[in-house]
What does this fold into?
Amino acid sequence: MPPARPRLSDVAALAGVSQKTVSNVINDYPHVTERTRLKVEAALRELNYRVNIPARSLASGRTGFIALAVPSLDNPYFSELAVHVMAAAAAYRWTVLIEQTGGSPDAETLVVDGAMPYLVDGIVLHLRSLTPADLRNRSDSTPLVLIGEKTPHHIADYVAGDSVQAAYDLTTHLLRTGRTRVAVIGIERDTRFATSTLRFEGYRRALADAGIDVRDDYVVPVERFQRENGAIAMGSLLALPEPPDAVLCFNDLLALGALSHLNTVGVAVPRDVALAGFDDIDESAYSSPPLTTIAWDTKAIAERAVALLAERLSGDSDSPPREISVDYTVVQRQSTTLS
Amino acid sequence: MPPARPRLSDVAALAGVSQKTVSNVINDYPHVTERTRLKVEAALRELNYRVNIPARSLASGRTGFIALAVPSLDNPYFSELAVHVMAAAAAYRWTVLIEQTGGSPDAETLVVDGAMPYLVDGIVLHLRSLTPADLRNRSDSTPLVLIGEKTPHHIADYVAGDSVQAAYDLTTHLLRTGRTRVAVIGIERDTRFATSTLRFEGYRRALADAGIDVRDDYVVPVERFQRENGAIAMGSLLALPEPPDAVLCFNDLLALGALSHLNTVGVAVPRDVALAGFDDIDESAYSSPPLTTIAWDTKAIAERAVALLAERLSGDSDSPPREISVDYTVVQRQSTTLS
DNA sequence: GCGCGCATTTCCTGCGCTGTAGATCGAGCG
DNA sequence: CGCTCGATCTACAGCGCAGGAAATGCGCGC
It folds into this structure.
């Protein structure tokens, strides 16, 4: 039977001070004399004391946790994002709880309503399906920062890149390489899903500016944004009487699935078909050929989101929602250009 | 100002019962009459009550959290594993806290000693650098389940596949396809790192059984198990006077990096060089060509590990450490065979 | 109609910590 | 040398919940 976990009072007794003084030492309260602090620290070491976090949380009202809710952690974009968020949160001594929503409205509602089976000081949510209207009447007041897509209405703080502009730039890049038959993979039927709606809008505008009409048979819907769906969608595009000579995929996984299919059936990329994606996951630099894609500044997204939470938690709960725009770059690789 | 979070006593007052009865309803205590339960549930809904988890933890001594400590979450193998662990934990109503160790002995020691900044009911640790000796005197009694590599000594429960046998099988597969100059990428200089040690042992045995000597110039060390390191290592192998005709990489990321390099410089896979990896991450089925690899039963690893924790938590803290072996399959894809 | 025994509910304590208020100490000053 | 004031420390309450003992209610048998 190992000795029970020591409590503050055990340390206090050993150090010959009050329990609160030990607490003060642990929490870096400034008005503690050097002498007292050394005494207490010796006792802490001797007993191998560790704070009981639930007790601290109960007494202080702060948990030290923030939630990061993303559609799915096995999508590399989100696991890479999670790593950045954890790093940013560490600067505030926060522990990150990762929650998967599957992108479903129900799960996202649970998150914004604080119905997760734990208590957190703040929430970073990568929104997928909830609309601003859905957020207006949330039944919880935990500070919330949204990431994902730039949305027109302003209900909560958010940090996002401009998908419309990014899609516009990427489509324009494809057109500039001489492509004329540009297809898209990644339409979702539910228009609440902002990602595909916004990226399609950028695609549409770029075609319009080039005087090209959107062809229905070049607009391929998918169930999920996974490699498998990209491969299947690519297969259907290749089966068209007049296949596209470029394909804009709404994320890298779709593009990598499409690429795999092209390589399998022997269609040369980029000679026969150019291919581009979004998100610049690590994998995209190592595909064959490497993938042209939109690289969001994911580190900045994570840091700004966490910083926004920190501001709200330090008392600023009234000021209007802030919106922070983050940069992106069009990373040109060999899936669109051979230069 | 939103109404303060309701407490049990608020619900109790509204329902006209005692606070403990409300607690009983929430916790599915069996001896509650239907009538009382309905009354309480109505009050719970009306007030939108949510349990205060820190308070529950303090009172009950259980936190409802388990920690999953892995080297790095941006390695797809670990993020895919995390998804399985979260699913398995959900069956026990546990929330998973993901911790990154970077594989360093210091960070792993902090994990096993319970020095993380939160309290958990149990720990699942994917061990990378700590040896059994390091684990023997841990200063914490939180139930611990190790995953990763089958180790010879028995300090804690663990769930793992047999890397020696897997490497043996995979090397044998390469030899059977007619390869004779089989190199390995992924040696780590520190022999405490079991993964490379064990996989190298399997490789060595397979060569020995085929009557082939290990060539020093075919054994390539790496700093990290990332794509980048695989690409660099492949470059050095190609620069040899007599390059290998097959390469066994100690994980898929190394193999995918190596593959990228081969595709870039125009070496045909598998014609000129066959390539195999470990872990069967999602990506490996979509590379060009798709990668032959070892597929561990990751879902089983997650489920068994969580189940072991559950047993320990339900009172069995004395019985000797249990070791559970999980299956793997050699997934043959086009990076080693054209059939 | 009364009592017994079990099912159901209540009462009350304490989990370990932090916030607040107030006690104590010590230095500087008149 | 006594007093004031700020720096430092202590005492104590209470955060919201679950456990256990005790109280109550209810059905059933005689």
Notes: Chain A has three domains: 8-51, 65-160+297-326, 163-296. Chain A touches chain B through 51 residues (CB under 8 Å). Residues 24 and 31 of chain A are 8 Å apart (CA to CA).
